[in-house]
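Quick illustration for those who missed Monday's session on complexes.
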Amino acid sequence: MKKAVASLAVAIVFGLTSMSFAAGNTPATPKKLTKQEVQKLRDVFDNYGCSGCHMYMHKDSTSGPAVAVIAALAKAKPEKWVISWIMNPKPHYSEPDVKALIHQYVQYMPNNGVTKKDAKKLYDYLMAVANGDAK
Ligand code: HEC
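Prediction with heme C bound:
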């Protein structure tokens, strides 16, 4: 029985894979960024000091969730919310899910003085990470 389930799973995965190849292997993301574009966005992330608390390599740190983690968090929320958070997190501190993160990291993300234009770039960077187009 287990064997039958396993081979069914293999068949499904194989089927989906060949389907995506047949469809030209189109990525799920609407716009695929070039390496240079991703690097430019990552520079914005570094220049604002985001990477001081959000680590690329480590899964997590005591100062904040890892980049991959905040990318996933950001993807799960409306773009407007994420932009607002990046520009000024404080008004969101009392939201239940944010409260849980604050409790977990024993830290409040500060206001980093991000402009609206750069907040959009940071959002795009996080989406590139969440979609596997950037690290
Ligand atoms: C001083 C450390 C620190 C810096 C600098 C920092 N963060 Fe954070 N960030 C945190 C912490 C800690 C959390 C978890 C929520 C909390 O405790 O406030 C967080 C959470 C987040 C989240 C997830 C929010 C959610 O609840 O879904 C995003 C997105 C994020 N940060 C983006 C950024 C960006 C972009 C920058 C740079 C402009 C940045 N952070 C700079 C510490 C930091």
